[in-house]
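In this section we walk through a basic example: taking a raw amino acid sequence and producing a predicted 3D structure, encoded as discrete structure tokens. The instruction is simple. Fold the sequence below.
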Amino acid sequence: MRQHGSIRICNPKTNAQAGISLIETLIALGILLIAAAGIMALATVAMSTTETQGHLASRTAEYGQDKMEQLLALLYGDTNTDTTVFPAVVNPGVGTGLKVGGGLNPNAPVVGYSDYVDAAGNPVAAAANWSYIRVWQITQAAPNMIQISVRTQVRHSIGSASQTGILPTSTITSLKSSPF
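The resulting token sequence is shown next.
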């Protein structure tokens, strides 16, 4: 706007660009609201998946530690205790105790070196309604020393909440020596 003497001359261009109208503000807020709603839906799914997967991963570590403690409680040369049941019992010919062998593949468990637990951590039979599988492997690490590894994995039908196909799994390893 200019003043020429006592006459004011208005420029229509500068008046049109003087500020943001209410309609422009409402359109911007509408776009922002739509974007925020989309992000919130995605955040809800992400939080749910993270919580579920985190809970399952915590349980795999806990149940793996339980099995490790059971194996470490055995005497070094024990090859007869059946640790696939709880409490473990001496069962010659069936039990493997701390005998070298086993494997860490939950998809191909070795008999005598695997067991199953339900969602509460209670041992169950392989054909029962199990939620977690525990497999273990005993290897000779050095003279008078064995390495014990326990892997726990969630059953696919429970752990497949996400479409990634990655199941929560925990692996725990410990050494046991003789005479201790």
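Looking at the output, two observations stand out. The chain has one domain: 22-177. The first strand starts at residue 2 and ends at 4. In the next section we compare this with other chains.
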